[in-house]
Amino acid sequence: MKLLRYVLLLLITSSASAEPFQNADASAGKTLVNQHCISCHAASFGGDGSGIYTRELRKVKNAQALAAQVRNCNTMLGLKWFEDEELNVAKYLNQQYYQYTE
Q1: DSSP alpha helices (H): ranges in 1-102?
Q2: In whole angstroms, what is the distance from residue 54 CA to residue 67 CA?
Q3: Total tally of structural domains belonging to the chain
Q4: CA end-to-end distance (rounded Å), the chain
Q5: How far is CA 3 from the centre of its chain?
Q6: Model's pTM, two decimal places?
């Protein structure tokens, strides 16, 4: 019985700190960001555009908000990305700038 409780606790702890975009491809996401996002962000925030991700009053506060913002940009710009492409971008941005764990 103790072993069962230990295993359950281990599983709960492991899933709580899981990477939020686990099945996505960050490399493919980076390619999409480089092709479609940097020029717009650089025009708005200067430099290489990364200021949008690192600004103090950024809108994105968790992984769900990150995925929603990527979807919003996709829709507003008419990029016509599929959901897996949005998740690829979210994974790349999360690894590069945010490091959200849930």
Answers
A1: 2-16, 26-36, 38-45, 51-54, 63-77, 83-93
A2: 16
A3: 1
A4: 29
A5: 36
A6: 0.80
Q: Which domain holds residue 81?
A: 2-98
The Cα 55–Cα 51 span in angstroms is 6
The C-alpha atoms of residue 94 and residue 102 are separated, in whole angstroms, by 11
Domain at 84, CATH number: 1.10.760
CA 83-87-92 angle, 5° bins: 150
Tokens read off for 101:
């764990």
- Six-digit token pair at 78? 């008419």
Q: What is the pLDDT of residues 11-44, one digit of tens each?
A: 444 445 567 999 999 999 999 999 999 998 898 8
Contact 10, 74 (CB under 8 A): no
In the structure encoding, which two tokens stand for residue 42, read together? Answer: 């650089």
How buried is residue 49: exposed, middle or buried, by Cβ count under 10 Å (0-12/13-18/19+)?
middle
Q: Which two tokens stand for residue 31?
A: 């390619």
